[in-house]
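Customer escalation, tier 2.

The customer says the design service returned an amino acid string that "doesn't look like it belongs to this structure." They asked us to rerun it and document both sides in this ticket. The original structure tokens are below, unchanged.
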């Protein structure tokens, strides 16, 4: 039951129990929360705050926010965060304070310079995918990488969701096709998310699964068997490495040619975005080229906040001018 005041020892104990729950989500989530909460506990100790209660919580979190911006020493190293990172730390600490201590803190986010994501055009994604068979002599590797590229763009899934997709969770119901995915940030064991896919994407997945030489419960897997005779899921690190190598290969191969009247320069965009490049590119394509409704795109991307979707909306100056001068009364 929530109280009005907690001693620092009680806050530390509650933090420890709260972090145990985050271990059940995934390792990255746990480590992120652990870092943010440890920074907050360090701040409380350094300020001599022995009681955290309803009267001090707002001021404490506001001061903690300022400390993150100004920088501080933690375990012998200097810590100084940019606005985006500060907001992430504050969000995690606010979640802890609310979920474990019953405190609601009203603290505005810092203004962030939202990135203007560089994206690949549909033609550039197609070029990357089609060159897999030339880049890799191992047919299974080539088909896997091509299928994963096309799948990520077609579905706008997160890379984690694609790489944890299991063969048993790709299926058809009459003339409709679905996959069930473990959404990022959801605790393992929670119900999977059922998502519709196109017939073309479904058949592409099934064609790839059919040529795999090593059995695996995962759709996208290693081509080598592990000690138990099955293949592990393809790793994000290896996929990032593969697409960066592929993009460099394509740039070099087509260095004297153009695509859409522009020199082919894909590798920088891929390197800057890594495996997220296909999700980013699909979002930008839907919003800026297909002119899809932003609310619809938010649901396609499964964003919690509309703000997360709006960063992909990059209207061209010509389009802005056209709207500005064509709606007079």
């Amino acid at each position: 039951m929530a109280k009005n005041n907690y001693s620092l020892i009680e806050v530390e104990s509650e933090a420890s129990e709260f972090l145990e729950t985050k271990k059940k989500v995934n390792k990255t989530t746990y480590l992120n929360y652990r870092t943010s909460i440890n920074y907050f506990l360090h701040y409380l100790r350094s300020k001599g705050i022995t009681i955290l209660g309803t009267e001090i919580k707002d001021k404490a979190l506001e001061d903690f926010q300022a400390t993150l911006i100004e920088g501080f020493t933690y375990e012998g190293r200097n810590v100084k965060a940019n606005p985006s990172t500060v907001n992430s730390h504050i969000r995690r600490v606010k979640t802890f304070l609310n979920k474990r201590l019953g405190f609601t803190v009203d603290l505005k986010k810092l203004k962030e310079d939202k990135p203007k994501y560089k994206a690949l055009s549909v033609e550039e994604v197609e070029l990357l995918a089609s060159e897999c068979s030339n880049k890799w002599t191992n047919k299974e590797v080539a088909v896997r990488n091509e299928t994963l590229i096309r799948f990520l763009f077609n579905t706008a899934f997160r890379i984690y969701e694609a790489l944890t997709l299991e063969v048993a969770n790709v299926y058809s119901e009459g003339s409709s096709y679905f996959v069930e995915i473990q959404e990022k940030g959801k605790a393992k064991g929670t119900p999977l998310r059922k998502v519709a896919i196109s017939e073309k994407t479904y058949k592409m997945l099934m064609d790839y699964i059919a040529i795999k030489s090593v059995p695996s419960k995962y759709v996208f897997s290693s081509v080598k068997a592990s000690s138990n005779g099955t293949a592990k899921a393809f790793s994000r690190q290896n996929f990032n490495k593969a697409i960066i190598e592929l993009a460099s290969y394509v740039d070099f191969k087509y260095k004297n040619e153009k695509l859409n009247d522009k020199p082919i320069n894909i590798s920088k965009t891929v390197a800057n975005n890594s495996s997220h490049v296909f999700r980013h590119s699909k979002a930008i394509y839907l919003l800026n080229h297909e002119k899809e409704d932003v609310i619809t795109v938010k649901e396609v991307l499964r964003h919690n906040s509309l703000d997360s979707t709006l960063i992909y909306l990059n209207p061209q100056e010509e389009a802005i001018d056209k709207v500005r001068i064509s709606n007079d009364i």
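Tier 2 assessment: The sequence is consistent with the input. The chain has 15 helices and nine strands. The mean pLDDT is 90. Sent an explanation to the customer and offered a walkthrough call.
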